[in-house]
Amino acid sequence: MNNHDLKLYFIMGSANVHKRPPLEVLEEALQSGITMFQFREKGPDALTGQAYEIFAQSCQKLCKQYHIPFIVNDDIELALKLGADGIHIGQDDFPVAVIREKIGDMLLGVSVHTKDEVHTALQYAADYVGIGPIFATTSKSDAKPPSGTEFLQQVRSEHPDLPIVAIGGIDESNAQLVFKAGAHGIAVISAICESVNIKDTVLTLTSIQPS
Ligand SMILES: Cc1ncc(COP(=O)(O)OP(=O)(O)O)c(N)n1
Ligand SMILES: Cc1ncsc1CCOP(=O)(O)O
Ligand SMILES: [Mg+2]
Q1: What's the CA gap between 109 and 121, in Å, rounded?
Q2: For residue 122, what are the contacts with CB-CB under 8 A and spacing of at least 6?
């Protein structure tokens, strides 16, 4: 993984897409230039069992076709079974040490909200950290209150080389603030899933420069 892979990190599960088949949305996002993808199938109506696995495999296949890293959210067993490129975990999932032990050198992304969490993520060689929600989000029911960009700025100044992706309520109107604060990239759900023109949205989001 290089820092550019974080530039526009698309996250999707079937619950995030309403008017079109999710795989169609993913393929359009891939064609338009997303740089990383996270399979995040959760929530009350999430697919389970065989349907869950088949959907994950279909997403992975599309990502392979476009040479884009396929990251699994939360589910280590699925990530290992499919041979995903990586896994993303949060502080309420599993201890980072346990995950690193299980996944070997697969990419590891960790959500962080405090300096201690950053320290632990670094100790176990997290490949990147996710910081957020920066702004209000409707895509995660148990999200913490929006943090704004202050913590992100602090982490960037203390860890100049740490790959950071910002998440939560990010869209064309505010992405520049986040890059300015020091993020290498933005992770989005609704900005793409609810876009009326995915190509335009992706082009706009990928062309934003820090200043
Ligand atoms: C890139 C990225 N950053 C943060 C998160 C949030 O992870 P987590 O806190 O574990 O919450 P869930 O996504 O599992 O609900 C993420 N998924 N991706
Ligand atoms: C998974 C996650 N973690 C923190 S905020 C969030 C949801 C981001 O979705 P959106 O881009 O629609 O605000
Ligand atoms: Mg999680």
Answers
A1: 9
A2: 159, 162
Quick one: 3-207 is in which CATH superfamily? Aldolase class I (3.20.20.70)
- Ligand 1 centroid from CA 111, angstroms: 6
Handedness of CA 201, 204, 209, 211 (dihedral sign): negative
The vertex-150 CA angle with 148 and 152, nearest 5°, equals: 95
Lining ligand 2 with CB less than 6 A are 132-133, 137, 139-140, 143, 167-170, 188-191
**pLDDT band (50, 70, 90) for residue 4:** very high
Please check the confidence at residue 210 and state whether its pLDDT lies above 90.
no
pLDDT at 211: 63
Q: Is the dihedral of CA 136, 138, 140, 141 positive or negative?
A: positive
Burial (CB count within 10 angstroms: exposed 0-12, middle 13-18, buried 19+), residue 67: exposed
Can you give the pTM of this predicted structure? Answer: 0.98
Phi/psi at 25 (5° precision): -65, -45
Interval between CA 12 and ligand 2 midpoint (Å): 10
* Rounded mean pLDDT, 193-203: 98
Query: Per-residue pLDDT averaged across 18-24, rounded?
Result: 95
Q: Is the peptide bond before 160 cis (omega within 30 degrees of 0)?
A: no
Q: Quick check: is 100 catalytic?
A: no
